[in-house]
Amino acid sequence: MTVALAFSSSALSATGQCGKNVYWSFNQETGELRISGEGEMDDYASVIGENEEIYHTSPFSKNPDIKSVTVEKGVTGIGDEAFFVCDNMTSVTMPDTLTKIGVRSFALCESLDNVVIPDSVTNLDWGAFESCTKLKNIVIPDSVTSIKMWTFRGCESLETIEIPDSVKSIGSYAFNYCINLSDVKIPDSVETIGGWAFSETLIHNIVIPKGMTSIGSGTFAYCSLETVTIPASVMTIESQAFDHCGYLRDVYYYGTKTQWNQISIENYNECLHQATIHYLVCDHAIAAEVEAVAPTCTSNGYEAGVYCDDCETWLSGHETIAKLEHNPIVVNQVEPTCTERGYEGDTVCSICGELISKGITVYFPRHNFEGSVCKDCGYDRSEECSCNCHEDGIYNVFFKILNFFQKLFGINKVCSCGAKH
Fold first, then answer.
1. Which of 159-163, 178-182, 309-313 bottoms out in mean pLDDT, i.e. has the lowest?
2. How would DSSP label each residue in 37-78?
3. pLDDT value at 94 more than 90
4. CA 237 to CA 229: how far, in whole Å?
5. Which contacts qualify for 165-168: CB closer than 8 Å, 24 or more apart?
6. Is the pTM of this model over 0.70?
7. pLDDT band with cut points at 50, 70 and 90 for residue 395
8. DSSP notation for 70-81
């Protein structure tokens, strides 16, 4: 492949050659660039000059006048860095004869918002659309078998991406810093995913392809992941694969608990350890019988059963037995007398001792007088109070009247001192 060495200038001529049999024509008024001919365009590069300045060899690179690009039928390859930093380019049209999109060919085309890659393309090279910050929609055809490193890195406006079943590998940093990318479906055809491929994105849910054996370093670091599904084929989760995934709550694993514990999970995957692991497959190799639990007054009982510690599931039995009724008895009962209050007693369970209900105070009954003497307590109502607390005055007269009625109705006599007689 020819590598062009002529340095680009800001003013693009109306026509020129950009490949062995490939040519361009440029309309200065409309900003449309047309690429025609047969075969591949030249590959271009960024070089460092004597003063450490970076120069771009493509005649189109960093040209602000290019608004759109049409690659005509017959052209089979877009060269490396062909349209590097054409930041005013808004659209590109590609023919069905195209098989290659070169290294960083559209990198930093910050106005490019929509791209349809034709089904004929088989080589989508690394960094092809890196930092196309306004790119919202892109269709990857079934002809592509590999999404190489940095291909869509920094495409900040990209929200969804559909990866076809033909893709077998996704390179490192392929979708890194696609900060609005939230919807991705990775097909089971993918066998490897490079480090940091989906880091710093808004992906909420991801299903790891069934054939993968390793999740690379930093693959989903700094993502908004809430759930992740991992196949039993995974044997290694490398360092930082799920680093800083603070929203991760559930991991669905197509294997047993024993298999999960055999996975080599390297450092800085704390979010993975803190999530709830759901084991979706189990051979119940660690199942064991569990004895019955008798019910009590305070808790249910359970029938005997078989429990698998691997998937944390009851396989049989373990039916609930309703807790027992309390056996109530009365304690702390006190009978009342003519002079002392009683207590009807507390109701408690004789089995578990739980207090069922508290009792209430029972007030003392009337005296059982025979003549002037109470047969129960021996109180003689004919006797005067022996206290020395009764002085003359209205207060004393009140209590004498009160005691008269108390004697009349057989009620304990109360002195002005408050004593009961």
1. 309-313
2. ESEEPPB--EEE-TTS-EEE--SSTT-TT--EEEEPTTEEEE
3. yes
4. 13
5. 165/189, 166/142, 167/140, 168/192
6. no
7. very low
8. EEPTTEEEEPTT
